[in-house]
Automatic annotation (TrEMBL):
<dbReference type="GO" id="GO:0016787">
    <property type="term" value="F:hydrolase activity"/>
</dbReference>
<dbReference type="InterPro" id="IPR054105">
    <property type="entry name" value="WHD_NrtR"/>
</dbReference>
<dbReference type="Pfam" id="PF21906">
    <property type="entry name" value="WHD_NrtR"/>
</dbReference>
<feature type="domain" description="Nudix hydrolase">
    <location>
        <begin position="13"/>
        <end position="156"/>
    </location>
</feature>
<dbReference type="InterPro" id="IPR036390">
    <property type="entry name" value="WH_DNA-bd_sf"/>
</dbReference>
<feature type="compositionally biased region" description="Polar residues">
    <location>
        <begin position="250"/>
        <end position="262"/>
    </location>
</feature>
<dbReference type="InterPro" id="IPR036388">
    <property type="entry name" value="WH-like_DNA-bd_sf"/>
</dbReference>
<dbReference type="Pfam" id="PF00293">
    <property type="entry name" value="NUDIX"/>
</dbReference>
<protein>
    <submittedName>
        <fullName>Phosphohydrolase</fullName>
    </submittedName>
</protein>
<keyword id="KW-0378">Hydrolase</keyword>
<feature type="region of interest" description="Disordered">
    <location>
        <begin position="234"/>
        <end position="279"/>
    </location>
</feature>
<dbReference type="InterPro" id="IPR000086">
    <property type="entry name" value="NUDIX_hydrolase_dom"/>
</dbReference>
<dbReference type="InterPro" id="IPR015797">
    <property type="entry name" value="NUDIX_hydrolase-like_dom_sf"/>
</dbReference>
Amino acid sequence: MGYGNVSERRMQPPQVGVSVVILALGPGAPSSGGAGRSRLWLPLVRRVRQPYLGGWALPGGGLRADLSLERSAYLALESTTDLHPKYLEQLHTFGGPDRSRGGLPMVSVVYWALVGRAETRDFAEADNVRWFPEDDLPAMAFDHREIVGHALRRLRERIEYPDLVTRLVGPEFTLRQLHDVVEAVTGEPVDLANFRRRMLASGELEETGEKIREGRQRPAAVYRYAPAAGERGTRPWGGVMLPDDAGASGNATDAPASSTFGMSDDGAMDDALGPLTTI
């Protein structure tokens, strides 16, 4: 079905879909001193039709009347990346009039999730799916680079909240592993000795009784996050000082809802939000 010329398409009611930003802690860039500081990585999918044929985009898909936004977001991940995060949070809604490159107007409801290293399958590539470090992304379709930047700003604003950090490092961790997460998220060096003191003084860590060896270091104690009753994720942890960051996009609307749910079968719509349609 045709939609007329560009001017006529711009007057049509917008289509609505979902996109998902997945962030995981991964290896850093090699440096003269070794492997380098850990970095945040995210999966992108290669588009197989116009617009932006062959370009990289966020996992995404369309909506159906009998499915919730959240189930649609999970479906988009399942159909493109095979990832199954336990937690998704609604990030923002993007609806700028120029984001569809002359096509039908598009509104994108964006979700984000943090996943552990085990869920990434060591960042293995799959059909039309590749992991990229957040500081070395390729050219991206539509406004998806802006969306990634928005997700990173949100994460950096909330890095002091332990529930968020432990989604990247896992339920049990050493202080060095926790330190690596904070440096990866902030992108800046954090003094390890001061960090250790702050974390231990927070009163929100408990030892598991286990120890693991990290490189050539002596075995390190393993901790878990243990907040006081009723305080899980409700207040900052450890007093980590973060750099100032830029403000949010003018085309975005906050939507902080979060939830956990299962999957459902559905079809995918090819648009700014469905980059991996194969027909």
